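so my prof wants the structure for this chain in the tokens format not the other one, which i didnt know existed until like an hour ago. anyway here's the sequence
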Amino acid sequence: MANTGDLFRGCFIKYNGELCQVMEYQHRTPGNLRAFYQVVLRNVKTGKQMEHRFRAGESVEMVRVEFKEMQYLYKDGTNLVLMDPETFDQVYISEVMFGDAAKFLKEEMIVKVSFEGDEPIGAEPPTFVILEISYTEPGVKGDTATNTLKAATLDNGAEVMVPLFVNQGDKVKVDTRTGDYVERVK
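here's what i got, hopefully its the right format
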């Protein structure tokens, strides 16, 4: 058994018999009261987030989770089909596990999937992806003095806001956590 001092962001614990992931945690010592940990947990099965306050030194049940890098193949309804590049086994994972970042996935991308035993419990795409712009309005020369953005459609169908100097056919780097444009790639 571990205690609350062993918690870290991203670890998995059993809370009320459910598998939960620690999204945020903060150690607090208010005035002359006892120290505690304020923790935001996400239920792996339902995706719901909740806050809980653990006493300092309280026992928690840590769960060992295995991470695998898998290759994204294609979308099948509400599921995404991933393949283990070593064994060529295919796994169906719900698109909900990727959250909003699922729209930035492109065939043959490598993603990280977490497993408890043989059951997938979480998935995350690469932090940054490089995609080509399939359509955007042309920029006007001289409009680069301000921080104005325009809508652009990427080659996988997702939309992002890009600066005016970015044109159709350019490759851009996108942050999958926020969905924001980062830079233009040569």
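also thought this was worth mentioning. The chain has a mean pLDDT of 88.
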